[in-house]
Structure formats: structure tokens, C-alpha cells
């Protein structure tokens, strides 16, 4: 849905089912393969025990919470990672996913919020002539050709920028 794992500052994981679903779509499939090739995103299957824990939890939450096979795997993988001592954040706009995640005490964030935060977290600039560029626009300065650097921008500046 437009998320680019290459732009993230932390490890990201996905499940084989997602790769399968994205195969038909050029943009997302490209970003995914670029990310896995660079080691930025790991594709991993969840353990059987975590998968059944997730399904049990979903069942306990009732009829309104229906998880697809892909969603089940995503939540189960997050559960695996948290058992390994990591603090995963599930990125999903799906109501069922968020509910099950909450029941399992896993962090989640909707893609919209996540995307905006990532987008305004960093700014690209040229270290030679200080021209600023938006993310993904170019890798080298269009004026002097210097390789761009990036720096964090504070949240206040981000808010003003977006309004
Ligand atoms: Zn420049």
C-alpha cells in the first residue's frame, strides 16, 4: 500500500503470504524485492505454535474478528518476534488485526499514521549547497550533483509543513 521498507530505520519483517499477494502489483512487488535483496526486510514464516495462539485469540474475540490466512501469519510472526525479546509494531489498517494484536499485547499502528510519521521524520538535503529535497525525489543534488544527506526534522516543523 505504498510503504517502502527501504526508507525505514529499523528491521522489518513480512510473511511469504504477503509476497504472494503482491506478486501481481508492480510497484509494491518491486519495493518488496528491493528491500529483501538489500536485507532491509526479512521474509519469515511464523511458528506453528504462535499461529495457533493467534487463531485461538481471534476465536475468543468472537465472530466480528475474522483473520485472513495472511493476517494470521503477520500477527503470529509479530508474536514470535516478541517472544524473541524484540518489540515489533504491526503495520495494518485492518480492524481484526488490530483487535487480535491488542489482545496479545502486541503493538500496532495504522499504515496512514505510520506513513506520515516516516515521511516527515527525515529531510534530504545537499551538504554542499544546502538545497532541500523531498524523500524519493533524487539521490544526488540536482544543482551541484553532490550526494544528498538526510537529517531528522522535529515534529513541530513537520506539523507546520503538513498544514
Ligand atoms: Zn547541491
Descriptive account of the structure:
A hairpin with a 6-residue loop joins strand 5 (122-125) and strand 6 (132-133). The protein starts with 11 loop residues before the first strand and ends with a helix. With 163 residues, it is of the alpha/beta class. The strands form three sheets. A three-stranded antiparallel β-sheet has the order 6-5-7. It has a two-stranded parallel sheet with strand order 1-2. A two-stranded parallel sheet has the order 3-4. It has helices at 16-22, 26-37, 48-61, 69-83, 95-103, 111-121, 155-162, and strands spanning 12-14, 41-43, 89-91, 107-109, 122-125, 132-133, 149-152. 47% of the residues lie in helices and 13% in strands. The radius of gyration is 18 Å and the shape is elongated. The longest helix is centred in the middle third of the chain and has 15 residues, at 69-83. It binds zinc ion. Zinc ion is lined by residues 126, 128-129, 131, 141, 143-144, 146.
Helix content percent band: 40-55%
Reported for the largest beta sheet, the result is:
3 strands, antiparallel
Shape: elongated
Major β-sheet strand ordering: 6-5-7
- Class derived from helix and strand content: alpha/beta
**Which ranges are low-confidence, i.e. pLDDT below 50, for 5 or more consecutive residues?**
none
Overall pLDDT, averaged?
80
Give the tally of β-strands.
Answer: 7
What value does the Rg take, in angstroms?
18 Å
Q: Identify every distinct bound molecule in the structure, by name, code or SMILES.
A: zinc ion
Distance between the termini: 23 Å
Number of helices: 7
Quote the beta fraction: 5-15%
The run of helices and strands is: EHHEHHEHEHEEEH
Amino acid at each position: 500500500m505504498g510503504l517502502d521498507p527501504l526508507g525505514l530505520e529499523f528491521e522489518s519483517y513480512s510473511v511469504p503470504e504477503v509476497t504472494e499477494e503482491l506478486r501481481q502489483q508492480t510497484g509494491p512487488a518491486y519495493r518488496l524485492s528491493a528491500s529483501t535483496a538489500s536485507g532491509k526486510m526479512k521474509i519469515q514464516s511464523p511458528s506453528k505454535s504462535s499461529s495457533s495462539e493467534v487463531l485461538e485469540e481471534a476465536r475468543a474475540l468472537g465472530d466480528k474478528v475474522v483473520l485472513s490466512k495472511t493476517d494470521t501469519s503477520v500477527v503470529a510472526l509479530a508474536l514470535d518476534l516478541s517472544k524473541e525479546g524484540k518489540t515489533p509494531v504491526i503495520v495494518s489498517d485492518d480492524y481484526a488485526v488490530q483487535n487480535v494484536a491488542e489482545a496479545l499485547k502486541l503493538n500496532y499502528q495504522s499504515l496512514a499514521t505510520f506513513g506520515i510519521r516516516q515521511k516527515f521524520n527525515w529531510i534530504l538535503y545537499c551538504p554542499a549547497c544546502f538545497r532541500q529535497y523531498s524523500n524519493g525525489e533524487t539521490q544526488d543534488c540536482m544543482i551541484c550533483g553532490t550526494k544528498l544527506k538526510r537529517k531528522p526534522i522535529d515534529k513541530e516543523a513537520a506539523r507546520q509543513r503538513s498544514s
